[in-house]
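Course exercise 7: structure representation. Students receive a sequence record and must write out the corresponding structure in token form. The form below is the worked example handed out in class, using Uroporphyrinogen decarboxylase (URO-D) (287 residues). Read each field label carefully; the graders check that inputs and outputs are placed in the correct fields and that the protein name is recorded exactly as given.

STUDENT ID: A-19
EXERCISE PROTEIN: Uroporphyrinogen decarboxylase (URO-D)
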Amino acid sequence: MKKTFSCISDNLENIPKELIASKNLKFPDIHENLSDMVEFSKIMKEHKKDLFCRVPFCMTVEAESLGAKINMGDEKYGPRAKEYAFKNLDELETIKPIDLTSGRIRMVLDAIQELKKSGELPILTVEGPITIISSLMESRIFYKELRKNPERMNTFLNFLEDEIVKYVLSGIENGAKIISFGDPAGSIDIVGPKVFREYSGKIAKNIIEKVKSKEKNCIIHVCGKTSVSLENEGMYEFNPINCNSETYGKAIYELIRENTKTKIIGHNCIKKSIYKIPKNTIWEIKE
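STUDENT ANSWER:
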């Protein structure tokens, strides 16, 4: 029987108005200024009584570094693409590699570094390829090109896969103890089983394997929707790990403390770290 996963992450992302007022938070400064980003990450950790600090607070950082034009938003609406940077595949193929030394993506890495230096356990949230592309070009055009020019699109997607791996490894090098990986726009219920198997799911697995082969001490937390789809499509098997920790975050913290090898876990939401674990079980990818 196929597994299911219900995503309620949007309900966990709301920033209470009273918190904004009491802490004098400025938007979009928390997305554009290093000290504000670090401070806001700590404020949210304290507010939620969490064990971890998280950055960034949107899904547009990687896309922006690849040329997306972003509206930085305010306290009600976060950063989002304001117009598409590429109108067709020819334009998309002119895309330049991510520059990790400048721009907002550099600031996110610096925030990870600052959080680590101040004694925090930082989580770097990383988006998958289809979510990134959804901010770069119109979805209708992307899927049309995928059907008409699969070889060229595969070349581009391989490039994007390598760029995501580069970013993940830099995040770990800068102090991220957990990589939270998801691809909401590439989930199986949106793209369908065929596109998931051939593209978004396949690339997700490639990214996981490449990071695991190069990094020996981190937690890769795969979004529950992605991990369940990977298992249902026969691309991974997951083993249950029983634990007695009072919260999901505490259980992940214990995995970090074991300090043995890279662990890939899923079938849950990293944003639920403050809640009790269903059936006292963590799910780890089977070796």
